[in-house]
Amino acid sequence: MVKAVVGANWGDEGKGKITDMLAQQADIIVRFQGGANAGHTIVNNYGKFALHTLPSGVFYGHTTSVIGNGVALNIPVLMEEIKSITDRGVPMPRILVSDRAQMVMPYHILLDQYEEERLGGKSFGSTKSGIAPFYSDKYAKIGFQVSELFEGEMLKEKVERVCEQKNVMLEHMYHKPLIDPGELFATLQEYKNKIEPFVCDVSAYLNQAMKEGRTILLEGQLGTLKDTDHGIYPMVTSSSTLAAYGAIGAGIPPYEIKEIITVCKAYSSAVGAGAFVSEIFGEEADELRRRGGDGGEYGATTGRPRRMGWFDCVASKYGCRLQGTTDVAFTVLDVLGYLDEIPVCVGYEIDGEVITDFPVTCKLEKAKPVLKTLPGWKCDIRGIRKYEDLPEKCRDYITFIEGQIGYPITMVSNGPGRDDIIHRKSSIK
Ligand code: GDP
């Protein structure tokens, strides 16, 4: 049984918490795309952790954590992350890394920084983790697979060939120091020694696990609106954030993904540049940012303040549709308890016309939010475990949003912990 946990919006919806919770009943948790550019925050018995590369199931003794072929694998970051959790008392997790995963090279990180510098005010707001240069090289067919680390002679020759090309760019475009192929080769030998114990034919492993009836979770990074094809291009990430890509990035048949749990946050936040129609500013935004998430809405990887906004039904309906949602997990609802009234974006006004279908980026830039205001419930809902025990106005907020997005909200998260979850029967399902 394969389930995917993915985001409907710009990321930071609380996927880490939902994956960590579902991992209690899972055997294998797989990262299938993205890299160390975004983070999941997880709160559990061991403390609070920000994960970047490891899947959110690493805290359990019974799970296997898999890094699929679709991931941008940064080996030093992975090693550092393993150390950061084991140093804090988490038992060494069982980790498998696909032999077909490609590696983020040191020059990818440099080129990402240099390009952002060059673009200046027109930059994409990259986290400078090397992700865009990494995926460009992967599709330009000059990336390095983990498997290549074990072929010394071929690797040496390829390192020289790729360095020649990178050095032209470094010298003439960025005016920066050149890469020494010998040094790079030595770094790759270190990578080889570090990664060797984890390397595996992940696709074969997962196919066997499916035959044995194991439960597999595919954990997405970011959300629909950051998908390269279906997101707010070009202010997107460089890999697909959709559940469908889970099949490719893990190496399993698409029809095996039976449940797609799309995580939607009860309000909006976004990082980086790009249109954000329901965005709010000033004191209103500061207060929501301060109260948001678990300890404020600041990036798990970069610490930068997130942009804030009201819940966006247009973006979320689209986000859920592209994911192929079977269930919505509606998160961080507890944070809204301070508001007298809660505005929700129910449409976009573009050139005098109101639409509810999410448009292409050039139209999106012109969109103004059409807001509807719902009454707040003005109390703390943390600790509630039964849907019926939620205040009526809170249930009204949930059903209103469910009606707007058209996908069943079957889980409501009212706190950062594993147990802060309310299961709910939806009339849609
Ligand atoms: P992810 O990247 O989608 O996993 O999301 P992040 O980790 O960036 O953001 C989610 C943040 O909200 C984390 O700090 C979580 O601990 C926290 N969180 C998740 N669910 C809830 C919730 O229901 N209520 C509150 N207050 N915080 C939550």
Question: Number of DSSP helices?
Answer: 12
User: What are the segments in which pLDDT stays under 50 over at least 5 consecutive residues?
Assistant: none
Arithmetic mean pLDDT: 95
Structural class: alpha/beta
> What is the strand content?
15-25%
Biggest sheet strand line-up: 9-7-5-2-10-1-11-16-20-21
> Which word captures the global form?
globular
Q: How far is it from the N-terminal to the C-terminal residue, by CA? A: 20 Å
- Tell me the Rg in angstroms: 22 Å
User: What does the main sheet amount to?
Assistant: 10 strands, mixed
**DSSP strand tally:** 21
Please estimate the helix content: 25-40%
Distinct small-molecule ligands in the complex: guanosine-5'-diphosphate
Jot down its keywords:
alpha/beta, 10-stranded mixed sheet, 12 helices, 21 strands, 22% strand
Describe the structure.
There is one protein chain. The chain has helices at residues 15-22, 75-86, 106-119, 131-139, 152-174, 181-195, 202-211, 243-250, 282-291, 313-323, 361-364, 392-405, and strands at residues 2-7, 28-31, 40-44, 47-51, 64-67, 72-73, 94-98, 102-103, 199-200, 216-223, 257-265, 268-270, 279-280, 307-309, 311-312, 327-331, 341-350, 353-355, 368-375, 409-413, 421-423. Strand 3 and strand 4 form a beta hairpin. The protein is of the alpha/beta class. 32% of the residues lie in helices and 22% in strands. The chain binds guanosine-5'-diphosphate (GDP). Guanosine-5'-diphosphate binds next to helix 1 and strand 3.
